[in-house]
Amino acid sequence: MTAEQFRDRLLAEELLADGAVPGIYHRSFALEHIIQHLSAYISAAGEGTAMRRLHLGPVQARATLEGSGYVTSFPNLVGVVTSFSGTEADVPGFLDAVEAGGSWLDHTAPTDLALCSAGCHPLYPMLASSVVPTDGELFEVETWVFRHEPSVDPARMQTFRQHEFVCVGSLDQAVAHRDRWLERGRALLAALALELDVVPANDPFFGRPGRLLARSQLAKELKFELTAPISSSNPGAVASANYHEDHFGVAYAITTPDGAPAHTACIGFGLERIALSLLYTHGTSVSAWPTETLAALSIDPATLAEGSR
Amino acid sequence: MTAEQFRDRLLAEELLADGAVPGIYHRSFALEHIIQHLSAYISAAGEGTAMRRLHLGPVQARATLEGSGYVTSFPNLVGVVTSFSGTEADVPGFLDAVEAGGSWLDHTAPTDLALCSAGCHPLYPMLASSVVPTDGELFEVETWVFRHEPSVDPARMQTFRQHEFVCVGSLDQAVAHRDRWLERGRALLAALALELDVVPANDPFFGRPGRLLARSQLAKELKFELTAPISSSNPGAVASANYHEDHFGVAYAITTPDGAPAHTACIGFGLERIALSLLYTHGTSVSAWPTETLAALSIDPATLAEGSR
Q1: pTM assigned to the model
Q2: Is B163 helix (H, G, I), strand (E, B) or coil?
Q3: How far apart are CA B253 and CA B259, in angstroms?
Q4: pLDDT tens per residue across span A244-259
Q5: Closest approach of chain A CAs to the CA of B237, in angstroms?
Q6: Domains in chain B, start-ordered, CATH in brackets?
Q7: Which is deepest, A46, A297, B9, B183, by most CB within 10 Å?
Q8: What is the C-alpha to C-alpha distance for residues B159 and B147, in angstroms, rounded to an integer?
């Protein structure tokens, strides 16, 4: 089954509905139920550890695209929010432009908002110019993330959710966090009977300067992905564990008690991708999933409508 | 307590975190827990009725802003997604522009995406040029909605969730749906011990032509709001029940079996606003909420951390 065939099956069974633009989908309540239970399952793995726990909305300050360095590394993926830039007095001219077709976009201008680029990005500005505690600062976040990359592959949606655990602290704390959560994440997803692999990886930095960054990231072993079949037998990342060195610490003047720039690390679980991987691996009929998977996720198939009605 | 003081209290108690732009907030897991339980509580009121049930993402086709007529009525509220418009070859020039500060926005162009304007808007294109069944077509949807209206009042967030019940059918079916759900919604929210009122209302159409539309909407009694104190003693809308006449039926060539344009109606519950209204009315300590409110929402305060940690 190709990714496109798998997508067509999800659409035919009404687990997804077509959002009229490649990579934009509506989700059935059944699929959303799976995602909510996945979120709770992953969250439980961090229970008992003191951390700030936040759900972020889909929109962040545009300044975060710039401050995080995202816009220069991944310009092709960003989403900036523009809106009507006029006043009431400009409305008649605006309406004429719309009547004339399409050119209403000429009357829009960038706002100070952007779509969220990654689960951890909005956290660093919250710590800007501060000193983190000796034990480091931990966060758990869930976020709607945007990537402008239209595709027919349902594994590559333009909007999806990340559930992340983030550490801001010393070099040792950050690396230990990344390694601990990589192993914990592997165990969590393996317990759902997914065909998992752990592979060194690089981010899709854009353009020629990007290829150098990607090579350096691989050589330093900063990023590891947990991969599994998602929408075809070809494995893709369902989670990634990342050590960012002092990139965000320097960018936002976040320091450790000894005055050095803070180092950061995160693991991000892709909730839609994990849900798709479960549907691809175990089938689109949830009642036929392995008992261990249903038990781990506390999903009772008897109460779960299979389609969207 | 003013809306600004209430916001500061929610920030101090870490139920909200400041998203660095007015009207953008992160939400504690405790607040998200309340919102999830509210969503389930409202959803249960529609149980047993056959309808298509969908969670929409925060992003919709830009064409939906145009097709729904939203862009001409509320140009000031829209959010269009722009992204980098160049190729790999344009990256060096782009990076120079960013280095020079700010002008990187000149290298972006509108995509075919926009932030979701209202819970029901993405549904109508799904029915375009179709004939709805004799009994009409019903939907339940939950959506992240965007309104570009920066404010210090937490009742006026720029992104928030709507939970809607939508009817597409004959004039009689649409009006009956609106009236049935207005009464059902009133009873649902009254059972949470909120100080509710039902008031005829109009949408905030923009500009001088907009004022005529608003007057006509009021005169025809198309829109009713359920109001309650949200962030101050001044009541605001926590839900609204709307009859759209044949506006969307005509726009998308949706017809009833007799060949007439379909009429549509919806009720939209504002999940963040209802949650804030509960916190404003019953206090920010959930364990002190009325027993009936906690029981209705199946919230056990013992398992609910009060802040974000």
Answers
A1: 0.96
A2: strand
A3: 10
A4: 999 999 999 999 999 9
A5: 21
A6: 3-79+117-304 (3.30.930.10), 83-114 (no CATH)
A7: A297
A8: 6
